[in-house]
Every structure is written in structure tokens, then in C-alpha cells.
Write a structure and sequence with these properties.
CATH superfamily of the largest domain: MFS general substrate transporter like domains
Structural class: mainly alpha
Order of helices and strands: HHHHHHHHHHHHHHHH
CATH topology of the largest domain: Growth Hormone, Chain: A
Shape: globular
CATH class of the largest domain: Mainly Alpha
Oligomer: single chain
Number of domains: 2
CATH architecture of the largest domain: Up-down Bundle
Helix content: over 70%
Strand content: under 5%
Radius of gyration: 20 Å
């Protein structure tokens, strides 16, 4: 295995810790807000639809600007975009903490999401420079692990903060956390050398035409539907199968733990053979997800004793692929387009995830849970089949 390379004055491990910390802070808000959903609904007198808008506002803002964030990182390096994005994200959270109406709250959270969009893109770029191909999958896996970790911390901390000081204190603490982690990330990251002074013409078209990119995005689109199914509908399916509220919550908890472990494990597997094993690992992830989906479907008929281990296997496949897609997207594109390429992949993941969730709910309502989970197995299998056709990348 290659030794990690030191880029700038700080060791790669510190860069990884800073990138993961900043990502966890963003997830603390974007994933953690549902933990105080009832309090938000009560304080701002929200309908269910309005509450949904509040809970997704941060993610919506990020989704709008991921490609723009990639362009900024490719053109200006990482430090300046991180500082600007952190400032905007903190400002948005600060306004949200003092919001007196739902409209102001949603708008402020969207603004915060716009600023936070730079964190995953800059983090990927920083880790690409800090780690050689044989360790990038693992490093990106650690960074991606921080997403469910941040959400888990928020699930514990946000209700306690809200109970102690209200929604204003909760969002104010979130703003401080985002500020500290963002500034630390900007401090430890190093801007890359300018690869070319010439402006890249039609960068998005170049990314789209990169060998294998369209198939990689297809894999991401298929896998994100399976991921959304697991995250959004594991608990309702478990409750419908007769599990207690505690057992259903325990099932969701082990799915999240499985997600954290799987992102590191699959990244490590993808790093074998000098980092040339990305496509094969994407195939294996899909196979595990498909098998897990079928076992989970059967387990729902036999109680919590079998549902929980089936959910662990299902989550290990269905939630473990994100870092593999992002590292593959960055490595397939030209170096000067790497950040934008990752941003394109992230945008596809976000948009398909947002669109598919209500459609998945309709499927469950009309076809039942057995059909629902079998469909996820089919989608995971389709993703694995497409991944099997991906051309090899020249990692650099």
C-alpha cells in the first residue's frame, strides 16, 4: 500500500479529521432537525406539509448549489470557498435561530444549505490531494461515515437543547458548531497548485462524456432509491409488520450503525489493488443490498429476532456505496474537473433521492410492503449489473 502523502503543512490524518468534522456538523443540522420536528411544528404552527418544507430546506439549498460549489473549488481552491460557505451557512443558522415566522425560518435554512454545499465538495477535493489512490476509498468512507454520525449525535443532543433553551438555542448551538468545524477545516486544508491557467470550455459536457461517467451516474441513481427506501421506510414497515415501537426504533438504529461501518469497510475493499477495484466493489455492494432486501422482506414476517440482523445486512449494502461513487466520479474526470465531477454525482444523488421518496411511499401504500422491498432488491440488482459494465479507471 502506498504511503500517505503530506500536502501542505498538516498531516493527512488531520485533514481527514477536519473534513469529517465539518461534514458531521452540516449533517447535525440537515439530518438532525427531524429530532425536534414536533417542537418546530408547535412553535411555528406548521402543517405537515409546512413541517416537511422546514425539515428539507437545508438539503434543498445545498442541492441547488452543489455544482456551483464544485466550480468554485476547481477555480479558487478549497480554503476561500470553505470560508465563504461557512460564513453563509452560519449566517443562515443565526437568522433561523431568531426567526419569528415559518417563512423566515425556511428561507434562512435554505441560505444555510447554500453555504454548506461547499463542505462535501471541498472535503472530497482535500482528501484526493492528501491520500493516494490506494487509500482514497477508505478516507472518503470515513468522511461519509460522519453523515450518519452527525445525525445520530443530533438525535440525542437536539431534543435536550430544545428542552433546555428552545429552538433558538438549538439552532444557535448548531451555528457555533458549523463555524468552529468550518474554520478548522479551512485552516488545515491546503489549496492545490494551479493545474492550468486556461479556462476549461464546456466543463459539464466534458464530464458527461467522460468514459463510464453516464453509467456511474446511473448506478448512483439506482442505489440512491434503495438507500432512501431503507432510511425513510424501515420504521413504518417494521411497525406494519407488528414490531413494537422500541423494536422498530432498534431496527433503525442498527441500520444507521451498519451504514457507518459499511462506508469505511467498502472504502477499504475498493482501495485494494492500488485503488483499481472501484467498479467491482460497486457491484458487490449492490449484490449485498439485493440479498439483504430479500432477507429483510422475509424477516418482516417472523419478528424482531430475525428482522434486526436482516436489517444489518441490508443496510451494509444499501447504505455503503456513497463514497465509492464520489471517489470514482472524481478519478474518472480530468484533474481540473474533479470537484465539479463529484458535484455532478452528488447532485444526481440528491435530486433522485428527493424525487423518489414520495414515489416510494405511494408504492408502499398501493402495492404493500412485500412488493416494496422486492422492488428495492430489483433496483439494487440493476445497479450491480450496470456497475459490472463500468470501464476501468486510470487512478491518479
Amino acid at each position: 500500500m502506498e504511503d500517505v502523502k503530506r500536502v501542505g503543512p498538516h498531516p493527512p490524518g488531520l485533514v481527514l479529521a477536519a473534513a469529517a468534522g465539518a461534514q458531521a456538523a452540516v449533517a447535525f443540522v440537515s439530518i438532525g432537525l427531524p429530532a425536534i420536528g414536533p417542537e418546530l411544528s408547535r412553535s411555528f404552527q406548521l402543517s405537515l406539509a409546512e413541517l416537511g418544507a422546514v425539515l428539507t430546506a437545508e438539503l434543498f439549498g445545498s442541492g441547488l448549489t452543489l455544482i456551483a460549489a464544485g466550480m468554485a473549488v476547481d477555480r479558487f481552491g478549497t480554503r476561500a470557498p470553505i470560508l465563504a460557505g461557512t460564513a453563509l451557512g452560519v449566517a443562515g443558522l443565526g437568522v433561523a435561530a431568531t426567526a419569528g415566522s415559518a417563512a423566515v425560518l425556511v428561507t434562512a435554512l435554505v441560505v444555510s444549505g447554500v453555504g454548506s454545499a461547499v463542505v462535501p465538495i471541498a472535503g472530497t477535493g482535500a482528501l484526493f490531494r492528501a491520500y493516494p489512490p490506494a487509500q482514497r476509498g477508505w478516507a472518503l468512507g470515513v468522511r461519509q461515515m460522519s453523515v450518519p454520525l452527525g445525525g445520530t449525535i443530533a438525535a440525542l443532543a437536539m431534543p435536550a437543547l430544545e428542552d433546555y433553551g428552545g429552538i433558538g438555542l438549538t439552532l444557535g448551538v448548531a451555528a457555533v458548531v458549523v463555524a468552529i468545524t468550518g474554520l478548522f477545516f479551512a485552516y488545515v486544508t491546503a489549496d492545490p497548485p494551479r493545474l492550468s491557467s486556461a479556462r476549461v470550455h464546456q466543463p459539464l459536457r466534458n464530464i458527461w462524456r467522460t468514459p463510464g461517467m453516464q453509467r456511474l451516474l446511473t448506478v448512483a441513481a439506482l442505489y440512491i432509491v434503495v438507500l432512501q427506501a431503507v432510511l425513510a421506510f424501515t420504521v413504518p414497515a417494521a411497525r406494519a409488520a407488528g414490531l413494537t415501537a422500541f423494536a422498530a426504533s432498534a431496527t433503525f438504529f442498527v441500520v444507521n450503525v451498519s451504514a457507518m461501518v459499511s462506508r469505511i469497510a467498502w472504502g477499504h475493499v475498493a482501495d485494494r489493488s492500488g485503488g483499481s477495484r472501484r467498479a467491482r466493489t460497486l457491484v458487490e455492494v449492490g449484490i449485498v443490498a439485493a440479498v439483504g432486501a430479500l432477507l429483510f422482506t422475509l424477516a418482516l414476517h417472523f419478528g424482531a429476532v430475525v428482522v434486526i440482523p436482516a436489517a444489518v445486512l441490508f443496510g451494509f449494502g444499501a447504505l455503503g456505496w456513497n463514497a465509492l461513487v464520489y471517489v470514482s466520479a472524481g478519478e474518472r474526470a480530468a484533474p481540473e474537473l474533479a470537484a465539479r465531477s463529484v458535484a455532478v454525482a452528488a447532485t444526481v444523488v440528491f435530486l433522485i433521492g428527493a424525487i423518489s421518496t414520495p414515489l416510494l411511499g405511494a408504492l408502499a401504500s398501493h402495492a404493500g410492503w412485500d412488493v416494496f422491498w422486492i422492488v428495492t432488491a430489483v433496483l439494487a440488482t440493476a445497479g450491480a449489473l450496470v456497475a459490472a459494465t463500468l470501464p476501468a479507471t486510470v487512478v491518479r
